[in-house]
Design brief:
single chain, 335 residues, mainly beta, Beta-galactosidase, Chain A, domain 5, 8-stranded antiparallel sheet, 5-stranded antiparallel sheet, 19 strands, 36% strand, globular, signal
Length: 335
């Protein structure tokens, strides 16, 4: 009888030991899929154009060209995003959007606050509509990563991020990562999302219009279904990370408006992305419309990842935008 109980216990525990991590990488980048072929380039930028949208992807080198005048070193990701007929970049020209910015573990002992900015990146051209931004293991956190940018038929960008921690260095048992989009002087610095008061999650959702009063104050909005809340030191220096607002979002997307165009970031529920914002993150009147991601219970050598999309288009009203992004939300929900 005891032997039978032991065997039963073993049968229950073994699948748990080998269960797939809920944030396991989708294996869609050259980091995790060796069948993906790519070409390297000696340039620091690649242009993607489809439909009415043109995006310029940049590594973290300084660039000074007609398309990217005075672009600063460190600011990787989407250096420029324009709709047909636009002269001005959505993003602060010297900075970027979808900028991979922070790696942390919630402790104040950060050797480098902006680690992804500081170590070499490599542009990998996959096709005319897809490019990857690969970074070898960084010097301090030993995190290897690859971000895949694909411009879709309607001009939306799909961003797939995958990473592999190569050492057990994260003291609080999770990996914290952060992305920033620095918006060029919009008249309205608010972001808009469906959500609920954090202390009244049983209430119906409403459309919220959030503007934080200052950098690092009420700066981040967790999902209302969050299953993980990171341990963060009281003196943790990245204030956009550790200052939650009074709200939680209930639908995995949000947008801001600049110059009669909407910039919408859409996520998969399963990835448990946290929204973040700053009214002055890009300096002066330039807000930061950001997001962050936490990987709990990570294992060195294992790959983790998420998928999100960016929709950039002329703005008319909320109902029209919601209708136009629904296909992207549905695609992400089925992913």
């Amino acid at each position: 009888m005891k032997l039978g109980l032991c065997l039963l216990a073993l049968m229950v525990e073994v699948p748990l030991l080998f269960a797939t991590h809920p944030l396991a990488a989708p294996k869609r980048t050259s980091l995790t899929n060796p069948q993906i072929k790519y070409q390297l380039t000696d340039q620091h930028t690649v242009m993607l154009k489809r439909g009415n949208v043109t995006a310029i992807i940049v590594d973290n080198a300084a660039v000074n060209t007609k398309a990217l005048p005075g672009h600063r070193a460190g600011y990787n990701g989407v250096a420029s995003l324009k709709y047909a007929g636009q002269d001005e970049n959505l993003f602060v020209p010297a900075l970027a959007g979808l900028n991979f910015e922070h790696i942390h573990d919630g402790t104040p002992e950060l050797k480098e606050k902006f680690e992804p900015r500081k170590f070499p990146m490599e542009l990998r051209i996959i096709s005319a509509d897809t490019v990857e931004l690969y970074q070898p293991p960084t010097a301090n956190w030993k995190l290897e990563s690859c971000g895949r940018y694909q411009i879709l038929e309607d001009g939306a960008l799909e961003y797939t991020f995958e990473c592999i921690p190569h050492a057990d260095l994260f003291k609080n048992g999770y990996i914290g990562l952060f992305w920033a989009s620095y918006i060029q002087a919009p008249e309205d610095r608010r972001i808009h999302f469906y959500g609920k008061p954090a202390k009244q999650l049983n209430q119906p959702e409403t459309l919220l219009h959030a503007r934080t009063p200052a950098h690092g104050v009420d700066s981040t909005h967790p999902p209302d279904h969050a299953t993980f809340f990171p341990e963060l030191a009281a003196d943790f220096p990245l204030t956009l990370v550790n200052h939650p607002s009074a709200y939680r979002y209930s639908q995995p997307w949000y947008y801001g408006i600049r110059d009669n165009y909407s910039y919408t970031q859409l996520f998969r529920d399963r990835d448990q992305i946290w929204l973040a914002q700053s009214p002055t993150g890009g300096g002066g009147k330039n807000p930061a419309w950001d997001f962050q991601w936490f990987i709990p219970d990570y294992q060195p050598g294992e790959a983790y990842g998420f998928v999100m999309r960016v929709h950039y288009a002329p703005w008319s009203d909320h109902a029209t935008l919601q209708k136009s992004v629904q296909k992207h939300l549905s695609a992400l929900a089925q992913d």
